[in-house]
Amino acid sequence: MSSAGVLEVRGPFPSEEIQAYSDLHPKPRNVVYSYGTAGFRTLGSVLDSVLFRVGILAALRSKKLDGKTIGVMITASHNPEEDNGVKLVDPRGEMLEAAWEHHATLLANSPNEEFVSTLYDFIRDTRIDMSKPSRVVYARDTRPSGESLVKAFEDGLKSLGAEGRDAAINTKGTKEEYGEDSEDGYYQKMSEAFRKLVSGRPRIPPLVIDCANGVGAHAAQKLAQYLGETLPFVLHNTDTVTPGGLNHECGADYVKTSQRPPPSLIGVLQKGQRACSLDGDADRLMYYFIDERNYFLMLDGDKIATLVASFIVDLVRLAGLSDSVRVGVVQTAYANGASTKYLSDRLPVKCTPTGVKHLHHAAEQFNIGVYFEANGHGTPSTPAQSTALKHLRNLTELVNQTVGDALSDMLLVEVVLAHKAYSAAEWNSLYTDLPNRLVKVHVPNRHAFKTEDAERRLVTPQGLQAKIEELVNRYESGRSFVRPSGTEDVVRVYAEAGLRSQADELAYRVGGLVFDEAGGDPSRRPKEFY
Ligand code: 16G
Ligand code: MG
């Protein structure tokens, strides 16, 4: 009990309603949930109780913040279609406050018979005033499990009598269609800013967009109507109804991890033509093109950060603001070493642990902070004081400064390319990526892996870091690090080196070390791939 001695929940606690609804959404006994890097994420078929409880939690978070609107997104991003997930978004569009991640995990795991009393204690101890209003806006991606999970979530809201607003695609075109006007307003605002930013520039050739058969397809189709000929789109992988299509052999994660274009675009892409891939919930962006020699070249989050940061630096300099406006870049350990070198020679660069929330926070330490993960998550954050400058003002209209929106990032890239009159090949030549490889290692307990120095070094298992370093030192321009995933039950190994074969070999060897150290199942030992 807290020292202030609050013994009871303030305001009404509808325990019977909560119990009745909770009985409709029992927690499976053998599943343990955890609120990870991007919320709860696992098989869609075991998430019903979690969604119900997240409905309650979102309503409570809103009450705690005096009725400010909380966002909830039901998605598993780039994961396969059978997965699903849910994450909460705080009122300014930032990730849920870390302390509440812990509350979310606690509530999700409370056994059915204890749920109502656990909830009561939580509300009392967190001093939530139940008489406060609560507002929650929610949406989902196109996964088949989404529809029933939304119902479970809505039951959570109803059990507290909270107000929810469905901004999801499942109301589109129906009588309950809601929030259309504000969504249109968003496209309007972005496309107007885009038009102003590229006015007077040469006509922009068509851009191929791989929509990952996900929700980005709907958004891109709408945005195309607003942009018209200013930026013509050629949309691919827009099928959101055929089962199994989502993120399957397409999308930003496929491209980044397999380092090749979606098979559906082979034969479509012309030499030099700009193409990009979104992921299932359209917050990642990966650009690429086929060069004159028919090689596939990727313009990943690091290349995007470089392009955008150099543009912003130019604008700030032209406006005579270099002395007062500090521009910086934030990356993670996954950033290609060549990008870090290129950027560090020109700007302050900071490295944070993986996950948008860490990067976003670090970016706010600069006046203008550009952050992109290599995997394509990111955005620039531009401050109010830079509105003195017309372009910077239009930029703030264009970019989404809170949570990732791959389409606004894409428009930003197109603006910079138009201003610099860069082709994809010229953009690519800013620096040459070091060959790199990412390997997943299946281990019995990934939580045994703890890191420090923005995930660049392992603290435990003891002694492993020294062995990794010993290996890395044998490779020219070698670099490798190991971290537990926050979204999958695996440990990830990243390696880069001066030559493709060396990067592959180093990744395989470090993967083997990790595997042997962790005592994994021999049938799942990483296979040689070089
Ligand atoms: C999530 C994160 C992303 C991060 C990725 C790492 C958000 C919105 N997304 O997708 O930033 O790069 O997880 O996944 O926070 P991992 O921990 O499995 O490597
Ligand atoms: Mg995503």
From TrEMBL:
Its cofactor is Mg(2+). It holds the Pfam family AMG1_II. The active site is at S77. Gene3D superfamilies: Alpha-D-Glucose-1,6-Bisphosphate, subunit A, domain 3, Alpha-D-phosphohexomutase, C-terminal domain. This is Phosphoacetylglucosamine mutase. It comes from Coprinellus micaceus. Keywords: Carbohydrate metabolism, Cell wall biogenesis/degradation, Isomerase, Magnesium, Metal-binding, Phosphoprotein. Residues 69-99 form the Alpha-D-phosphohexomutase alpha/beta/alpha domain. Belongs to the phosphohexose mutase family. Substrate binds at E373, A374, N375, R483, P484, S485, G486, T487, R492. Its EC number is 5.4.2.3. The lineage of its organism: Eukaryota, Fungi, Dikarya, Basidiomycota, Agaricomycotina. GO terms for biological process: carbohydrate metabolic process; cell wall organization; UDP-N-acetylglucosamine biosynthetic process. It comes from the Eukaryota. It catalyses: N-acetyl-alpha-D-glucosamine 1-phosphate = N-acetyl-D-glucosamine 6-phosphate. Binds 1 Mg(2+) ion per subunit. PROSITE patterns: PGM_PMM. Catalyzes the conversion of GlcNAc-6-P into GlcNAc-1-P during the synthesis of uridine diphosphate/UDP-GlcNAc, which is a biosynthetic precursor of chitin and also supplies the amino sugars for N-linked oligosaccharides of glycoproteins. Pathway: Nucleotide-sugar biosynthesis; UDP-N-acetyl-alpha-D-glucosamine biosynthesis; N-acetyl-alpha-D-glucosamine 1-phosphate from alpha-D-glucosamine 6-phosphate (route I): step 2/2. Residues 186-285, 300-422 form the Phosphoacetylglucosamine mutase AMG1 domain. GO terms for molecular function: magnesium ion binding; phosphoacetylglucosamine mutase activity. Residues 438-507 form the Alpha-D-phosphohexomutase C-terminal domain. SUPFAM superfamilies: Phosphoglucomutase, C-terminal domain, Phosphoglucomutase, first 3 domains. Mg(2+) binds at S77, D279, D281, D283.
